[in-house]
Design brief:
Chains A, B: This is LacI family DNA-binding transcriptional regulator. The structure is a homodimer of 341-residue chains. Chain A has 341 residues and is α/β, with parallel strands linked by helices. Chain A has three domains: 44 residues, Orthogonal Bundle (434 Repressor (Amino-terminal Domain)), CATH 1.10.260.40; 127 residues, Response regulator (Rossmann fold, 3-Layer(aba) Sandwich), CATH 3.40.50; 130 residues, Rossmann fold. At the A-B interface, helix 4, helix 5, strand 2, helix 6 and helix 7 of A face helix 4, helix 5, strand 2, helix 6 and helix 7 of B. The first copy, chain A, binds a DNA duplex (16 and 16 nucleotides) through helix 2 and helix 4.
Chain lengths: 341, 341
DNA sequence: CTGAAAGCGCTTACAG
DNA sequence: CTGAAAGCGCTTACAG
């Protein structure tokens, strides 16, 4: 009963309307000067039969799928969830479906998705990695085409790339800290080979340098995770590092960091100032409300899809460029002048 | 260069291996007694040509797509993001692709996705709605089949349904509050026609009733959003409602609520106790850390997919059942005995 | 065990 | 303007 009886096809509609399938197909695809009266008959047949085209047949025939692929490290992470949400919304607006895949830090899956794209499974791919590439990914991307690298770099891929302005983010954080008198800053970043971490760190240093005088940055780099936030916090605490402020390079890192600070009775911003990065989570409800650099997450997703569709893939030499989206600082209550300890 | 040259097909492989496409196809699909030596030749040809089957052709031919659809209200919402993540992981394990769609409260989109499923676009659908149905959805679901209703009910749909044990959640919250001496509780729920809100409210009342003595529940029902959390908070504050505890029926509602309490200088749990529901966000870092009922979000996603695959869709009479997944209470620091005011 | 052939349901030159 | 027919790349009875 509930199961699939033979679905109504183009042929059925054509028969019902007394025309050929060619005509119906053309009507459906808009490549037709409507002869008005037959058009009505066809429309009626479509209504009556509740006809809907079989997408598999259409795709096979047309050689494209009207769906785009999106590869992200982890969907449950609020940053990526927001990005996925933005891409889905933008794709839907354009009548594109979304095929979603999470890599969960397994390089093999990245390769597999790229391959399936190559076989025209999807019309294009938005690709987000979160670990260094040994060159395999870049090679695959270059021979595949139609992929936009988003958020984090794949070094030798010659395709459009879209990132947040990470250097600016680091710089804004650095300025804010420096303005409050901080000169010794602990930086908790992501994987050190990754562009996001490197650029944020560079921005931080540039700010500190520009403000003049001696300064010091203590670097802890690992993953953009709660676990690493905790781990880094324990390490610098146990090492007795004398930073007066901490720049946590993601919401997750900030969460892990704050858990530890709280557990050890270290007060923010009284004992140490903290500034975060991402600002996707409800940082304003933390104790204290966390000052952070906000990434333009939705804009990243929307722009990435636009790039995928706008790019002229036939001109390889114009493909390799990098576009940066601005970030901003959201000042709350976790940064204060260093305490006199 | 980078663009798609004609992809290598089954025919190419067959030619290269000196066999028919039938044979290659069979090998690929496992329905073959391997003749060992030809098998090797074919495997080699596949390697050499880097052959990968065209999924569109396969789908058209087989009449199924090896992809399942997932319809959620809003991907950026951490609750749904986590659910999507769990479904994707489970689907990937089984070699299924995921087609993701957000409805964003637009009923028309729900209808459209259901229709496209009916046309065998996907092999099955996990469906999550977040607003009452006038019957149209249920009708469509019943004639479509192969859909699992998850998280929130579609009343007359005769398909498997999977929910959190919302009544239990309300009950656990109620017990915890009652144990601390609360008898006048403000309940901030979602849309009042929805099953989740009704059941949580029932559980809350059952707990209060079981503990004996007079009690009172003040109900505010709207959406599971930050905005509604704020709105409800302002309303009961302005109305001077004398509740000693608040049961906020989602993380989002709790966030809005806490924003308002904080803005008005009302201290939790000193002035009023708060207990939340969902526990997906970093509630442990809130000020104070929020006690909440935790939903088994990932389990919900995994089980939903399992149900979709396990169900024998050919037997309509066995289809209509409801399965509940248990919730638990996570006690933190936002509930205390009522203050003597 | 293996192959020729039909069929899945569209699209699209190519002819009227 | 409209149709017959080939083709997209698979799968799968049906025959050897």
């Amino acid at each position: 009963m509930t199961s699939t009886k033979r679905a109504t096809s183009l042929k059925d509609v054509a028969d019902a309307a007394g025309v050929s399938v060619t005509t119906v197909s053309r009507l459906l695809n808009g490549s037709l000067q409507l002869p008005s009266e037959t058009k009505l008959r066809i429309d009626k047949a479509i209504q009556d039969l509740k006809y809907e085209p079989n997408p598999h047949a259409r795709r096979l025939s047309r050689g494209r799928s009207e769906t785009i692929g999106l590869v992200v490290p982890d969907i449950a992470n609020p940053f990526f969830a927001t990005l996925v949400s933005a891409v889905e919304a933008a794709a839907d607006t354009r009548g594109l479906a979304l095929s979603l895949h999470a890599t969960l830090n397994r390089p093999g899956r990245e390769i597999a998705y790229l391959r399936s794209l190559a076989r025209n499974h999807v019309d294009g791919l938005l690709f987000i990695t979160n670990h260094p590439d040994d060159g395999e990914l870049a090679a695959l991307i270059n021979q595949t085409g139609k992929v936009i690298v988003v958020d984090e770099d794949v070094p030798n891929a010659r395709v459009p790339k879209l990132f947040s302005d990470n250097e600016l983010g680091g710089y804004l954080a650095g300025c804010h800290l420096a303005d409050h008198g901080h000169r010794r800053v602990i930086y908790i970043g992501g994987p050190q080979e990754m562009i996001s971490t490197r650029r944020r760190s560079m921005g931080l240093e540039r700010a500190l340098r520009e403000r003049g005088g001696p300064f010091q940055v203590f670097r802890y780099q690992g993953n953009y995770t709660v676990e690493f936030g905790r781990e880094a916090a324990c390490r610098f605490l146990d090492e007795g590092i004398q930073g007066t402020a901490i720049f946590a390079s993601s919401d997750e890192i900030a969460i892990g960091l704050i858990e530890v600070l709280r557990a050890r009775g270290i007060s923010v911003p009284h004992d140490v100032s903290v500034i975060g990065f991402d600002d996707v989570g409800p940082l304003h409800l933390f104790a204290p409300p966390l000052t952070a650099i906000r990434q333009p997450v939705r804009a990243l997703g929307e722009r990435a899809l636009a790039l995928l569709l706008e790019t002229n893939w036939a001109e390889p030499e114009s493909l390799a460029f990098e576009e940066l989206l601005p970030v901003e600082i959201v000042v709350r209550n976790s940064v204060a002048p260093p305490s006199k300890s």
